[in-house]
């Protein structure tokens, strides 16, 4: 280090020798830095952080080896309806017809390659952050046993929708106070085969869907898994204090229900019947990314869509920030949620889990070239349909080719 400096000065003696201009330069530089940084410092001291994070830490993310070994399989997916719909988060199939809910509050019906608006739960206008609570945001969508659709709208609650007429019936209003708390972010649902019970999540009582970055970064632990009885119309809280309760999926035998806990990068399990009825445990701990929706796979396991990777080897921003709440506060004093999203590296990732919770296989798209992020992987007729909460297209992967 020292040697290098001496050589440098010897080679440019004029720089070292000119003490006066060197001093001027130093003063100018210091003044410049102070002028630029002082307001920033004052601003960070005066500004209030929108979040109130508690420190916590993750386990070291799993190594991307074995069934998690990165591959390019997700790049074999084809994009469908590019530019014709935005943010098809969740997907349901009824024969050859596809249903999905989009970021502009619509429930779309896609048949014979044509997109139609089936229903709209909220009101126009739509398209901005300010409009979102009144526009509505259909997230989880399922086909029930009678061939009707069941939809979880982030702002309005649970609905049944007629797939032909588009008639909408409210089942549970998001305004309903449940055990003293409102539902600020209704997210996903799963229905029993007899149609009697609907399991659903409210991701948070505090943060709405449009503030999901705050929810993740604050690590708020107020998400709930709930059960709606379609006969008694009662709602019961099964699990509370979840950090971003997200996707929901009943097991094939309907003896338990899985719920992804996004902020914790894990999947929880609630036992509905059997010896462990009413109890819960962790189905999958320490995922290689942050999970979104979970859907059945034809092998009796589950597909898990992942929003953001926790690379190992590599650097995971969320893992780094978790024990440093002061840094999270600083970030949100300086940047908007939309801005922070731009720093998140794109990476398409879908996992297939076996029914015992082990990893069967994974499909990757490093850098998200074709599939930038996966909110849900929905298997139908040998294809995996991939949703995204922000992309302007659906993706479809031929499972026979991977
Ligand atoms: C299905 O239809 C039957 C007969 O109309 C009705 O009793 C039942 O409640 C319906 N189930 C659902 C889930 O809508
Ligand atoms: C993946 O699932 C298939 C179908 O159930 C099974 O035959 C196979 O053994 C599984 N592979 C692993 C690695 O778990």
- Poorly predicted parts: 1-16
User: Which percent range fits the helix content?
Assistant: 10-25%
* Radius of gyration over C-alpha positions, nearest whole angstrom: 25 Å
Biggest sheet layout? 4 strands, antiparallel
Bound molecules: 2-acetamido-2-deoxy-beta-D-glucopyranose
CATH fold name of the largest domain, please?
Answer: Neuraminidase
Structure summary, number of beta strands: 24
Instruction: Tell me the β content.
Output: 35-45%
Number of domains: 2
Roughly how many Å apart are the termini? Answer: 52 Å
| Strand order in space, largest sheet | 1-24-23-22
Structural class: alpha+beta
Pfam family, one: Str_synth
Subcellular location: Membrane
Family: Belongs to the strictosidine synthase family.
GO molecular function: arylesterase activity
């Amino acid at each position: 280090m020292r040697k290098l400096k001496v050589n440098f000065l010897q080679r440019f003696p004029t720089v070292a020798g000119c003490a006066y201009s060197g001093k001027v330069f130093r003063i100018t530089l210091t003044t410049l830095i102070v002028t630029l940084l002082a307001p920033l410092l004052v601003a960070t001291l005066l500004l209030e952080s929108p979040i109130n994070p508690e420190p916590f830490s993750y386990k070291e993310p799993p190594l991307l080896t074995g069934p998690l070994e990165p591959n390019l399989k997700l790049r074999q997916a084809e994009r469908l309806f590019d530019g014709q719909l935005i943010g098809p988060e969740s997907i349901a199939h009824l024969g050859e017809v596809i249903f999905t809910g989009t970021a502009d509050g619509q429930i779309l019906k896609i048949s014979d390659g044509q997109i139609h608006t089936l229903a709209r739960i909220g009101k126009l206008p739509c398209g901005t952050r300010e409009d979102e609570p009144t526009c509505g945001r259909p997230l989880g969508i399922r086909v029930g046993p009678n061939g009707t659709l069941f939809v979880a709208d982030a702002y309005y609650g649970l609905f049944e929708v007629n797939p032909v007429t588009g008639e909408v019936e409210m089942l549970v209003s998001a305004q309903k106070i449940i055990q003293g708390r409102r539902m600020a972010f209704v997210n996903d649902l799963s229905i029993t085969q007899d149609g009697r019970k609907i399991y659903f999540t409210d991701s948070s009582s505090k943060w709405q869907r449009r503030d999901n970055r705050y929810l993740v970064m604050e690590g708020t632990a107020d998400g709930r898994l709930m059960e709606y009885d379609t006969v008694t119309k009662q709602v019961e809280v099964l699990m509370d204090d979840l950090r971003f309760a997200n996707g929901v999926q009943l097991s094939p035998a309907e003896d338990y229900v899985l719920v992804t806990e996004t902020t914790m990068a894990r999947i929880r399990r609630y036992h509905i019947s059997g010896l462990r009825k009413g109890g819960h445990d962790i189905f999958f701990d320490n995922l290689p990314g942050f999970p979104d929706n979970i859907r059945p796979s034809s092998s009796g396991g589950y597909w898990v869509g992942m929003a953001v990777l926790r690379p190992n080897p590599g650097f995971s921003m969320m893992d780094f920030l978790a024990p440093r709440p002061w840094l999270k506060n600083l970030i949100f004093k300086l940047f908007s949620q939309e801005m922070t999203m731009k720093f998140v590296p794109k990476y398409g990732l879908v996992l297939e889990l076996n029914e015992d919770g082990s990893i069967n296989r994974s499909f990757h798209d490093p850098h998200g070239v074709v599939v930038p992020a996966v909110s849900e992987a929905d298997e139908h007729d040998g294809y995996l349909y991939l949703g995204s909460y922000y992309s302007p297209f659906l993706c479809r992967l031929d499972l026979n080719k991977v």
